[in-house]
Every structure is written in C-alpha cells, then in structure tokens.
Amino acid sequence: MSDRFDVGLISGGQDSLAAVNVAAEEADLDILAYLDTGTGASANREYVEEVADGMGLQLWTLRTHESYTAAVEDHGFPGPSRHHIMYSLLKERQLGKLATAVSGDLHLWTGVRRHESQRRMGHVQSVVEADRWTWHAPIHDWRKSTVVAYIDDLDLPDNPLWSTLGRSADCWCGCFGSPEEVLDAEACGLDDVVDMIGSLESQVDRDDEKGKWAWGGMSDTQARAERASGRDMTLCSACMPHSTEAEDSHE
What is the mean pLDDT of the chain? Predict the structure, then answer.
C-alpha cells in the first residue's frame, strides 16, 4: 500500500484545470480538492464538480471554519497588507487539516505559474518541499497561450465564467480586488457574491475606506470620496471630479 497521497487542487480557473490534468498523467491522483473560502460563487463550485465527475475523481471540499464576515466586522474589509492573513484563514489552515487527516506523504498539485505576475517570476519551482507536504507545479513554466492550447487540444470543459468574468470565482476576499468587480459579478449573474458583499458593506460600521469591499484597489479619487462620505458635504454636492474619475476607471 502506497504511503503517498496525491491531491489535485482545483479552483475553477484555466491554470488549475490544466494542472490537474497534467498531474493525472504524471501521478496517480487520489482526489481533487476545492478550497471553499466562504466567499466564492456557487456557479464556480458547480463547474468544479463537473470537472471532477469528468475525470472520475472524488472531490473533497475543504471548507474554511473561519468567518470572513466576522473578520470584516472586526477589522473592516481587508486590503493588500492583510492578504497573507486572509490566505491563512481561508485557505492555508484547510490544507493543514488535510495533512492531519490523510495518512502518508501529502503531495499537492497546483496550477501556479511563474509567468502569472512579475512577483512570481523566478520564484515558482516545479517541486518545493514544505513542512507538511510537497508542492508540485506541473505547468510552472507555461505561458497562458500554452494553457489555453492544452485545454482546447484535450477538449476540456470550459468554465462559463472564463468568457464573462474573465477568471474563476472561488475567492472574493477583495484584498487585491477593485470595486468594479462587483459590477462584473452582477453582470455575470453571480447574485450570491453581489448579495454577500452588499450585505457586509451595510453591516460594517466604518466611515473610512475599510468600510468598502476592495478598498485597496480604489483610485485616489474614489478613496477621497469614501473618506468624505461620512461628513456633511451638502454644500459641495456638485464638486465630485467626474472627469478624473472617468480617467481613473481606464487605468
């Protein structure tokens, strides 16, 4: 009996879809795992279930027991500086529980690519030994065009959100988001996401930027408007610099 347990991490994005299929060729995957952050769209989860069924693999949902809502109520919506905290709360701790639950050496297969961002250039490796598991990045050196071609060649199932939202919708913590993404979610029919964000914004009792989802992605104009929103600005109601705001939206 093997003392190794291989898990393909799938998020609903193109990179993770390609990666788990490559992993299935290179290793005997035991399961697929979906990290349920409590902020994702139900439509995205349904797509992931479809992929697992098509691959003939069991899907484990690793649901966070931490409350994103409670964190926002206590500290306001997170910005870029709190991303590591949100990552730990919503994702990393679930992997720790998985490592505790399985027997044998845990191997996690992920779709991370070094060409995804300037920050990741030079840092992503194909295999990395962590404290409690081994990371595998089978498409670490692929470019996006290679990922798309691979999906097309194998006729792998598309996530409808790829063509509408432009990405998966597994996490809406907002650390690196922008306010316009709520409009995108609404246009894509992700009512559960829109309702979640709207409800939280109405509950958070703050008069600064942190009372708004994805405040870290606001332009300077938007941030100034939020800081002023809690004041009596009746005499300046016509002072909003609309032209500047329009320019900011195209950055």
Answer: 85
